[in-house]
Design goal:
By secondary structure, the protein is α/β, with parallel strands linked by helices. The protein has nine helices and nine strands. The chain starts with a strand and ends with a helix. It has one domain: 3-Layer(aba) Sandwich (Rossmann fold). Strands 1-2-3-5-4-6-7-8-9 form a nine-stranded mixed beta sheet, sandwiched between helices.
């Protein structure tokens, strides 16, 4: 593991690191905020949205002060593999390829060699964090925004014993039913839509709900709400399956980090109380 940068931040340490990922077949970067003290601390994994890197959360979310107060480690990985030989959207679009790994294990060429973000987030990165930082592996949660909210929901539902808490800001809840998700899943996983259900939170919750309440915040003025996000689909499926879920519609808020920073402390305290 290579240290790229490290600085004191609100009584703790914030660093950016890089390592050679076996899952993704390239160097991956991630950021970690560690509060003061010896630990072990609860750990939250933040999954960012389209176009983001490991830097967006640590520079825009304003999470460090509350994390220091609550004694939380926060890990913020990149959103996709990068580097020489890693393929990108041939048309250069923002919603697929670099910066848009969708937290799936791709099965289709040329994506399958590097785009294995599910294994990276659910398995490889936690093992590295648990070996190198003062975290309690039995007190881990996951949260995220937009594409990262999709990742958080699916990773929690597939691994409720490992990622014990889950929340999301403006998540893509039903990628099989919206343009962003259909583009990504068809390219990464192929044309058989039955394979997509393994990475679709609405399909997953209908089949295997967790016993943990899920918190979702959604901006009412989000320009992507009606076409790409559609949180009501997940809530309906969750309620039918007996999955506890709280959807908070926040009037006037859009899809940006201004929305995220406004309610970040709420989410950190919500996770801390349950971990």
């Amino acid at each position: 593991m290579r240290v790229i940068s490290s600085t004191k931040s609100f009584g703790g340490v914030q660093g950016v690191y890089a390592h050679d990922s076996a899952a993704c077949g390239c160097e991956m970067k991630f950021a970690v905020y560690t509060p003061a003290g010896e630990g072990p601390f609860p750990v939250l994994y933040w999954l960012s949205g389209l176009t983001c890197t490991e830097e967006n959360f640590i520079t825009k979310a304003g999470a460090q002060r509350a994390a220091a107060e609550l004694g939380l480690v926060i890990v913020a990985p990149d959103t996709s593999p990068r580097g020489e030989g890693v393929p990108d959207d041939p048309e250069g679009a923002y919603d697929f390829g670099l910066g848009a790994g969708y937290y799936v294990n791709a099965s289709e060429a040329p994506w399958s060699q590097h785009y294995r973000m599910y294994d990276y987030i659910a398995k490889e990165l936690p093992a590295l964090i648990e070996s190198a930082f003062p975290v309690d592996a039995n007190r881990a949660g996951v949260f995220g925004h937009s594409m990262g909210g999709h990742g958080a929901l699916t990773i929690h539902l597939k691994n409720p014993d490992k990622f014990k808490t889950c929340s999301a800001f403006a998540p893509i809840v039903a990628p099989s039913q919206v343009p962003w998700g259909r583009k990504a899943l068809s390219n990464y996983l192929g044309g058989d839509e039955t394979m997509w259900a393994e990475y679709d939170a609405t399909a997953l919750v209908a089949k295997a709900p967790s016993t943990t309440e899920i918190l979702i915040d959604q901006g009412g003025a989000d320009s992507f709400l009606a076409e790409q996000l559609r949180p009501e689909l997940f809530v309906k499926a969750a309620q039918a399956a007996g999955q506890p879920v709280t959807l908070r519609m926040q009037d006037g808020y859009d899809h940006s980090y201004y929305f995220i920073v406004t309610f970040m402390d709420d989410h950190l305290r919500w996770h801390a109380a349950r971990l």
